[in-house]
Amino acid sequence: MSKCVFQLKLGYKTTGLSMQRNIFIVILIFLIFFVISFLTNILGPIIPDIVKSFDLSIGLAGFLPFAFFVAYGVMSIPAGLMVEKFGEKAMLIGAFFLAFGGALLFALIPSFTIALSSLFLIGIGMAILQVVINPLLRVSGGEEKFAFYSVLAQLFFGAASFLSPLLYSYLVLNVHSRNGYSESSGFLIDILNGLVPENLKWVSLYWVFAAIALLMVVVIALVRFPKVELLEDERIDVGKSFAELAANKLVWAFFLGIFAYVGTEQGIANWISQFLQTYHEVDPATTGASVISYFWGLLTIGCFLGLILLKIFDSRKVLIFFTCGGIVSLLIALFGSKDMALIGFPMAGFFASVMYSVIFSLALNSVPKHHGTFSGILCAGIAGGAVVPLIVGGLGELVGLRFAMLFLLIPLGYILSIGLWAKPLVNNETVSSVRELFKMG
Fold first, then answer.
1. 217 pLDDT higher than 50
2. Which residue, 109, 429, 264, 211, is CA-closest to 272?
3. Rounded distance between C-alpha atoms, residue 286 and residue 291, angstroms
4. How many CB atoms lie within 10 A of CB 47?
5. pLDDT in tens, 1-31
6. SS3 call for 169
7. Given 3-state DSSP classes, what are the helix, strand and coil percentages for the chain, each rounded to the nearest 5?
8. Residue 87, phi then psi, degrees to nearest 5
């Protein structure tokens, strides 16, 4: 899943050694952002292979993203409570160990039922990581540099989203290729040739994921993390604070906004390759993977453009403009020619780029207190990435994937409505001149 970096607004007060800004920890956090994105956004490219390898219907294939993203709904708030009890280091190690176990399980026993369990385990691990790393970045890099480091983290997140489909293409084209075990095939390919069945070359990805996750466990175990202490007003509280927020209809309206955004993003990304193969006979391992790579690449570029636009225009107007652009791009991709689809889907990623960060900031700026608990509720909305692709897959069985993807107009319409009804207590700060824009940090 990718998008502008999750801003889980948990505040920390530094103590003792944590006052020393640790650039090594910051770099490690950037690496974690990269790995999260690398593992999260690979489902779209491989769905056609999974469908073919396990002889699945479109409806059953929809359960794959469901198994992964439902973990966010399950773990977002519990992870916020657990990190306070067990600490950041233990939670990071546990998260990557879960990801390692899930990836290794599927690599060893590639089947549809195992894939569901594997993706759920990996999803839980990624949900824990999302909760831990943003507050840790604030502490390690310093609050005064948090905005800058968050932008850099977006770059790492987006780079991984762009590169993971390309790795998929490389592995599928080279594992068990004509080179066989020759010297020209390379050390990595030689190892994977011995591990992966010839008819399941794409499973090699999960061997790579398992190795990466295990390496991260080792690295994190060797690193000394700063000690942190949560500020009282910014703890996740499932008691009084949660009850107050749960009684506020605005809270659930913004929760649905996050739900709708992640559902839309994953509903597009997870079905791009299958759509292109079905309607335009595009090879998922080459052109299909490239289109998904461009989708995430343009989404990342859009994040940076969005940062500039939000300094010039009201965030609600930016949200409305980008959502309209996303709707037009999606319709062009679905009903245009092959060439139009190859452009339309990546452009949908570009226009989706600012939606998450704008919805999240509008939400936090619309509620005066309990931001830590509210952030936990909002992050649980990432479960939209489980539900919407599943609905699209189910509808695809009835009316075909093209018309099924029109369902995405419903969450997009809801996102558009947020730009019309949101009334934040504090509006985003804007500039009055280009000169003032470049003076701002």
1. yes
2. 264
3. 9
4. 27
5. 544 443 433 333 444 444 445 788 888 988 9
6. helix
7. 80, 0, 20
8. 95, 160
> What's the DSSP call for residue 177?
S
Alpha-carbon gap, residue 136 to 143, rounded angstroms: 10
Residue 13 DSSP class: E
Mean pLDDT of the chain, nearest integer: 85
pLDDT in tens, 409-424: 999 999 999 999 988 8
Structure tokens at 394: 């189910």
Q: Which residues of 358-385 are buried (b: 16+ CB within 10 A; e: fewer)?
A: bbbbbbbbbbeebbbbbbbbbbbbbbbb
pLDDT given at position 329: 98
Count CA within 13 A, CB hemisphere, residue 159.
Answer: 12
Find where tokens 């107050």 sit: 244
Give the DSSP H/E element, type plus range, for residue 429: none
Among candidate residues 400, 413, 395, the one with its CA nearest the CA of residue 327? 413
The reported pTM is 0.86
Q: How many CB atoms lie within 10 A of CB 146?
A: 18
As a whole number of angstroms, the distance between CA 254 and CA 68 comes to 22
User: 207 and 196 in contact (C-beta within 8 Å)?
Assistant: yes
Compute the distance between CA of residue 4 and CA of residue 413 in angstroms, rounded to an integer. Answer: 20
12 three-state secondary structure: strand
Residue 6's pLDDT is: 38
Report helix, strand or coil for 363.
helix
| Distance between start and end Cα atoms, the chain | 28
Q: Is the pLDDT of residue 426 over 70?
A: no
